[in-house]
């Protein structure tokens, strides 16, 4: 039977050509391969065509910013801002979401879905960045300046996401290809090596974006300054003080501090280096909706007493960037971050989510200068931030006093912003000393988060799990 | 393509030319004398529609509804009376002017029961494949709105579960088990020869909370318009459907007109539906006892007096401690009314028959409020054959419209879980009561509207012409158009006022407008030849099909006020959530060769070569085929005189089918427009990894069957054994997140085997002139296992599937009950690492697929009364209430057993652990128990699915035919299962309702 069918098919094919599947001569109707080929639908584009038009590349880039804003480590709803604030000592958590309680109680388990989302959303963005890098390399119809700009931005995004991954997971794979077969079995890379790759991508990105003009009035997409700001941060984290100072100085030269504390988080703020625009709904930042307590009871997060008492008397930030609310009976009062003031119900767009701002660069340079022995320069930088907050010049004199003062300043300047406090505790090796005191479940190994359990199952090459999990 | 279409048009044109020619050339014989009379059955009831021909002359007619006839025939002519289900009778006129004839019922009707096999039809007697069927007479006895509802329990090998009791919801169906790891079990649906897309076009954004997004297109088909449903199960029957036959084929044939006097039929019915089983939940006093106990056990009682914490336990500190509401009666305790009216006109001559029918149905819900479902259907059919019988034409069209208005979420979950002392629904002024913003009023869901309107057009034409003797050319053409418009509103007024939502900041309207239309053309050639000992039937055909689907989902947010919420143009911001279209093209050549030797050796070969656009270049085509054999051994000389065995047949088949049921464009490396934007730049998001090796799933079916008839087929048994193996499985192979994707759809070297035994039994137990009793019984014993899955241990399916076990298993922790000393649940630590974790301790396996299922029906006929009882049974396990409620003391109501059987002090032996407030994460929350062996228990049942009592009013004048009936659906369920319903075990879906129907049928 089978051979007969085969023979018949062969016969048809030889008679009517390979592309035609068969023929019923009596009826005279042909069935051809051409019939069962369809055009892609209007909402789908084949990759090749995306990279031959700058506007569609722009659209592919926009997806990266959108994904960062909406999910994972960068987003206001699920990212470092709230999660690392309760994991460290900035916010208390009043809810009973078991995933978040694991953070608050420093008992994060490998199946934690928040951590899984950090991991997988980051690599999703990295895939997108790599697809752009590869697409641009193969593109023929783009002008060179366009190629440089997109390539620079994609490399920045790739480096940025890896810098976040390495900061919470330690050793992680540095992904530079879209090949799923390779990425599916990839191994982890040492923290040092990851930082090396980050720096090399960023240096390349800075070079590529040096000469290309980027329309970036609202600072909504990464440009050369953003790449340099991240470089400064990464150099600081890797103890490369001279390079950190140089990069921070470059950035500081291009921006100025706002005089008014109330202006710092507005979308027009001149000290913003990079910010992500909010979505259609909510009409303002996710950070504001997460952190502002609309009524008591009903709070999720509130500032810890420890952070409140860290402000010196007369610190303008204590009054300008913090607000409070009480219950109807006036029996309890809770304090919350009030840097972003417009929640989703404010229909006018006032604020964007800021990810790099000038104050951090001053503090980076101050710290780098201290380490390099330039205490005068370090004090100058620190005082820029203190004076803006209405505080007198620092009284710190020695290198160690200054380092303490800078750390204390970072705590009150950068509080509840993308986990700065947590990273400061971690990189200075103080996490256990500070948090172990009042967090009963704290363990030394909590300085790293667990690699998500299901990822270890999906790719055993990622083993071993981080210590303590 | 274009060329094919033009040729098709030419073909149609030629056909009509032939028919014209045929009619013009026919000459009728001059009339002779008239003979009239009546035809009745043996009990004296007039028989309508009896075929009547004058032997050896080209004259014929049909008896009217009162059984009368008149025909032109000479005094020496001979009349032949024939009708399906009766023995033919030859009556010489012998000079009479009036002839009275009684036709005897034929119990041995096997040879005349004709089954629709799709491209061809075959008699029950000669079929080589396995085809299960349900006819209109059985379906009519069941008051259901969806054709799948009428099939439940009646067909062996077909497992159908109703997914919700909400009108307009869907059903899940499995023909001989789940073949594919990706979970798609939908069979191919063919309505009057036209493939009918059964996949819901509902949008998650809109209908997830009310009908689980499953807006079944099959709801558009009125069960009363259906003549028969056939389910093709084995390779012999399904291989001719090639790549789409793997999960079986469901053929729906609509009603046709019958010759005779023009007849009018009216059918009216009213149903009352209610939830058939309420759960036994805690009352206020019991509830508060365990609540307080839970708070205290967690060491939180110190906070009980602190107002800042009141929002965690308003039921204990703020609400009336004596108030009691039975939320099940309040929220799902109403009566759903269904009114159904149908009018039809049918009739015609021997050559041309017609049927036009219109129906209207309205069904309300058991929820409070005025939600309702409306459906209107119009169905028509014209059938014509030329005088010389060479040209035939059949046209059917159906149009239906559905309009479903429901609350946007199912209130069942609230009914089962709301605290019994929760506040009143309305305040004194009749507004929603928010009790100082301390609860979310469940009736707010009634302010949030869900609406869906669909319209469906189904049209098909079958034209055939006998070119020369034995050779027929025909074409089947069909068109379907299904459109769906749905919306969901979320007004700010439905939210707790404490959020300060305003229409500007919160109110939203989401709309979904979707379309699917398809056309199909299938030209065919059939050659039939009978020789002395051998007959042969050859069919050759080709298919061109195209289906396009479009969906547009939009959301508008921010309205000036809530009364403008239905108008998208009034929205402040409008975003497109989804704008998708897809195109599916399909091309095939198919054929069948049937050989019958000596009336008892039958060979049936079927095959198909298929091309589908769902696969990448070079992978689009596949070949499928089957061989079927039957031996009617009762025809052998040795047995032909047996008085006991009246029929015996052995049959078997083997063949391959496939499945391309995996969505369009899956093989492409793509970016998708998501509808979102960043800073005004539309977003293109990576959506697919290029995978050119993407091909068919293959399903190989093997079947053997034995059919036996005893005592002139009064007792008939049909037993089959099957084994289906599915390989080349298309699964979303899970990828590590480092790839940027969670999975890649590709063919995987895994084999799933479904085997089983099916038994169908029917008998005419008693048959006297006044009393008749017949019984039907079917049982299916399915067995399924994952035969092979290379690399399962290292894949992410490692925790879901086990080689040698079915796909329907769940892996669970093993519960060791409650520790009498600590009052905590104890879970078996399989790997002994001191931790209970999903990686090493989910080792307890339960299979949730039925072990066996079937139905038992009895029909009693006593004069003008007919009484039917149909029982459905299923042996299975399912998730029990422990899946939802494992710990006493949570802020939600639960079964009263959590109060009575909870652990309180050391030494207690109880089923449920110590009470806990559920507020302390990670401890006492019963999460492991919920996923343990204790959460699965027996969910077997015997259900009185249907009882029907019909009375036919006797001795009416003028051919008037009146029937009154009372029917009950889903009346009683005998089960040990504790939840709302043993078949549908989710506690957030309304269980299927118990329905009682009173109906009247009038025909004249």
From TrEMBL, chain A:
It holds the Pfam family SusD_RagB. InterPro entries: SusD-like_N, SusD_RagB_dom, TPR-like_helical_dom_sf. It is found in: Cell outer membrane. Its main location: membrane. Residues 97-236 form the SusD-like N-terminal domain. Keywords: Cell outer membrane, Membrane, Signal, Transmembrane, Transmembrane helix. The chain crosses the membrane at residues 20-38. Residues 326-469 form the RagB/SusD domain. Belongs to the SusD family. This is RagB/SusD family nutrient uptake outer membrane protein. It comes from Flagellimonas halotolerans.
């Amino acid at each position: 039977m089978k051979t007969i069918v085969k023979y018949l098919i062969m016969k048809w094919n030889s008679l009517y050509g390979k592309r035609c599947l068969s023929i019923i001569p009596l009826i005279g109707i042909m069935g051809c391969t051409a019939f069962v080929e369809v055009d892609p639908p209007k909402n789908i584009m084949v990759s090749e065509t995306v990279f031959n038009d700058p506007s569609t590349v722009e659209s592919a880039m926009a997806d990266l910013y959108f994904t960062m804003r909406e999910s994972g480590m960068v987003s206001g709803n699920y990212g470092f801002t709230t999660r690392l604030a309760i994991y460290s000592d900035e916010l208390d958590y009043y809810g009973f979401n078991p995933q978040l309680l694991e953070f608050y109680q420093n008992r994060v388990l490998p199946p934690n879905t928040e951590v899984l989302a950090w991991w997988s959303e980051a690599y999703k963005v990295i895939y997108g960045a790599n697809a752009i890098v590869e697409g641009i390399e193969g593109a023929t119809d783009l002008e060179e300046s366009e190629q440089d700009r997109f390539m620079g931005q994609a490399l920045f995004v790739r480096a940025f996401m890896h810098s976040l991954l390495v900061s919470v997971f330690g050793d992680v794979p540095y992904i530079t290809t879209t090949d799923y077969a390779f990425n599916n079995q990839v191994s982890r890379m040492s923290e040092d090596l990851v930082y090396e790759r980050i720096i090399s991508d960023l240096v390349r990105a800075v070079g590529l974006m040096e000469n290309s003009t980027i329309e970036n009035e609202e600072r909504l997409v990464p440009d050369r300054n953003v790449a340099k700001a991240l470089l400064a941060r990464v150099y600081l984290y890797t103890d490369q003080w001279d390079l950190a100072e140089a990069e921070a100085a470059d950035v500081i030269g291009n921006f100025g501090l706002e005089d008014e504390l109330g202006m710092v988080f507005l979308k027009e703020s001149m000290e913003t280096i990079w910010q992500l625009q909010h979505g259609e709904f909510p009409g303002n930042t996710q950070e504001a909706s997460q952190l502002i307590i609309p009524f008591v009871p009903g709070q999720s997060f509130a500032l810890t007493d420890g952070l409140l008492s860290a402000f010196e008397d007369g610190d303008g930030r204590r009054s300008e960037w913090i607000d409070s609310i009480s219950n109807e009976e006036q029996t309890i009062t809770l304090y919350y971050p009030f840097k972003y003031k417009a929640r989703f119900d404010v229909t006018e767009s006032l604020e964007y989510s800021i990810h790099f701002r000038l104050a951090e660069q001053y503090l980076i340079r101050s710290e780098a200068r201290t380490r390099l022995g330039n205490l005068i320069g370090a004090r100058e930088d620190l005082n820029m931030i203190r004076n803006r907050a209405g505080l007198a010049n620092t009284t710190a004199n020695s290198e160690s006093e200054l380092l303490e003062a800078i750390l204390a300043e970072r705590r009150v300047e950068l509080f509840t912003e993308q986990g700065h406090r947590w990273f400061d505790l971690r990189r200075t090796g103080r996490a256990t000393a500070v948090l172990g005191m009042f967090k009963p479940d704290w363990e030394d190994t909590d300085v790293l988060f667990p690699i998500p359990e299901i990822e270890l199952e999906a790719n055993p090459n990622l083993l071993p799990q981080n210590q303590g999990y | 393509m274009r060329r094919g279409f033009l040729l098709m048009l030419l073909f149609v044109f030629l056909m009509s030319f032939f028919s014209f020619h045929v009619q013009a050339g026919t000459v009728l014989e001059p009339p002779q004398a008239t003979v009239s009379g009546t035809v009745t059955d043996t009990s004296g009831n007039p028989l309508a529609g009896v075929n009547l021909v004058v032997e050896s002359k080209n004259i014929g007619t049909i008896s009217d509804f009162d059984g009368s006839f008149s025909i032109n025939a000479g005094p020496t002519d001979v009349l032949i009376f024939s009708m399906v289900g009766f023995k033919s009778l030859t009556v010489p006129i012998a000079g009479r002017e009036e002839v009275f004839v009684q036709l005897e019922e034929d119990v041995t009707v096997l040879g005349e029961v004709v089954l629709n096999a799709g491209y061809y039809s075959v008699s029950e007697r000669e079929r080589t494949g396995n085809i299960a069927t349900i006819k209109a007479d059985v379906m009519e006895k069941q008051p259901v709105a969806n054709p799948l509802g009428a099939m439940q329990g009646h067909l062996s090998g077909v497992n159908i579960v109703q997914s919700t009791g909400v009108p307009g919801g869907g059903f899940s169906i499995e023909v001989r088990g789940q073949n594919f790891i990706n979970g798609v079990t939908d069979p191919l649906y063919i309505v009057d020869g036209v493939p009918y897309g059964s996949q819901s076009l509902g949008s998650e954004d809109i209908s997830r909370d009310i009908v689980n997004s499953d807006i079944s297109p099959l709801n558009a088909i009125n069960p009363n318009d259906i003549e028969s449903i056939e389910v093709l199960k084995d390779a012999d029957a399904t291989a001719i459907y090639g790549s789409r036959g793997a999960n079986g084929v469901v053929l729906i044939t609509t009603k046709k007109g019958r010759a005779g006097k023009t007849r009018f039929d009216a059918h009216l019915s009213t149903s009352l539906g209610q939830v058939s089983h309420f759960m036994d939940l805690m009352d206020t006093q019991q509830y508060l006892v365990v609540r307080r106990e839970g708070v205290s056990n967690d060491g939180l009682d110190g906070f009980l007096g602190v107002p800042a914490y009141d929002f965690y336990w308003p039921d204990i500190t703020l609400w009336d401690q004596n108030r009691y509401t039975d939320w099940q009666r309040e929220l799902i305790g109403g009566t759903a009314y269904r009114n159904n009216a149908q009018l039809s006109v049918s009739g015609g001559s021997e050559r041309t028959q017609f049927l036009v029918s219109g129906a209207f149905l309205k069904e309300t819900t058991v929820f409070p409020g005025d939600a309702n479902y409306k459906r209107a259907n119009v169905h028509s059919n014209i059938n014509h054959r030329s005088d010389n019988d060479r040209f035939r034409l059949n046209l059917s069209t159906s149009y239906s419209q559905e309009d479903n208005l429901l609350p946007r979420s199912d209130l069942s979950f609230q009914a089962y879980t709301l605290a019994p002392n929760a506040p009143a629904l309305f305040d004194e002024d009749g507004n929603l009561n928010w009790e100082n913003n301390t609860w979310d009023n469940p009736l707010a869901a009634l302010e949030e509207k869900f609406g869906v309107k669909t319209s469906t057009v189904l049209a098909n034409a079958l034209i055939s012409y006998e070119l020369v003797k034995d050779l027929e050319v025909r074409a089947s053409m069909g068109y379907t158009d299904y459109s769906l418009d749905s919306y969901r509103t979320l007004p700010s007024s439905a939210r707790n006022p404490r959020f300060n939502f305003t229409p500007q900041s919160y109110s939203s309207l989401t709309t979904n407008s979707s379309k699917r239309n398809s056309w199909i053309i299938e030209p065919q050639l059939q050659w039939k030849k009978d020789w002395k000992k051998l007959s042969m039937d050859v069919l050759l055909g080709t298919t061109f099909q195209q289906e396009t689907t479009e969906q547009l989902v939009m959301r508008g947010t921010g309205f000036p006020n809530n009364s403008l919420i239905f108008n998208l143009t009034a929205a402040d911001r409008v975003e497109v959530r989804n704008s998708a279209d897809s195109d599916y093209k399909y091309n095939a050549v198919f054929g069948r060769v049937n050989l019958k030797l000596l009336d008892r050796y039958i060979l049936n070969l079927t095959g198909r070569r298929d091309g589908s656009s769902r696969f990448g270049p070079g992978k689009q085509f596949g070949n499928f085929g089957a061989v079927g054999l039957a031996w009617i051994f009762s025809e052998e000389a040795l047995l032909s005189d047996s008085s006991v065995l009246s029929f015996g047949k052995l049959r078997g088949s083997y063949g391959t089918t496939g499945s391309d049921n995996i969505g369009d464009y899956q093989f492409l490396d793509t970016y998708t427009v998501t509808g979102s934007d960043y800073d005004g730049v539309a977003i293109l998001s990576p959506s697919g990894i290029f995978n050119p090796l993407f091909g068919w799933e293959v399903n190989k079916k093997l079947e053997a069957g034995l059919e036996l008839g005893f005592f002139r087929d009064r007792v008939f048994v049909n037993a089959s054994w099957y084994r289906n193996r599915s390989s080349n499985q298309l699964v979303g192979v899970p990828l590590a997140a480092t790839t940027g994707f969670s999975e890649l759809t590709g063919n995987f070297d895994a084999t799933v085997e479904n085997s089983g035994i099916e038994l169908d039994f029917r008998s005419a137990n008693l048959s006297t002139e006044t009393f008749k009793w017949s019984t039907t019984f079917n049982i299916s014993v399915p067995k399924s296992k994952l035969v092979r899955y290379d690399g399962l241990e290292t894949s992410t399916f490692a925790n879901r599937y086990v080689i040698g076990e079915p796909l329907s298993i769940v892996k669970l922790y093993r519960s060791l009950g409650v520790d009498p000393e600590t009052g905590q649940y104890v879970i078996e630590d399989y790997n002994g690492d001191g931790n209970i974790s999903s990686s090493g301790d989910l080792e307890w396996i339960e299979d949730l697929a039925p072990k066996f299922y079937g139905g038992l029906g009895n029909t009693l006929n006593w004069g003008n009364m007919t009484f039917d009882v149909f029982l459905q049974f299923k042996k299975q396990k399912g998730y029990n209430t422990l899946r939802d409620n494992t710990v006493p003391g949570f802020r939600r109501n639960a079964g009263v057993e959590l109060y009575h059987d909870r652990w309180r002090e050391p030494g207690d032996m109880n089923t449920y652990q110590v009470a806990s407030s559920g507020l302390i994460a990670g401890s006492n929350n019963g999460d492991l128990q919920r996923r343990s062996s204790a959460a699965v228990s027996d969910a077997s049942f015997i259900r009185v699915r249907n009882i029907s009592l019909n009375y036919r009013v006797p001795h009416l004048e003028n051919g008037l035919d009146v029937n009154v009936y009372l029917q009950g659906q889903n009346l009683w369920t005998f089960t040990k299962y504790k939840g709302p319903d043993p078949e549908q075990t989710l506690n957030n879906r309304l269980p299927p309702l118990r329905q009682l129907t009173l109906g009247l049928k009038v025909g004249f």
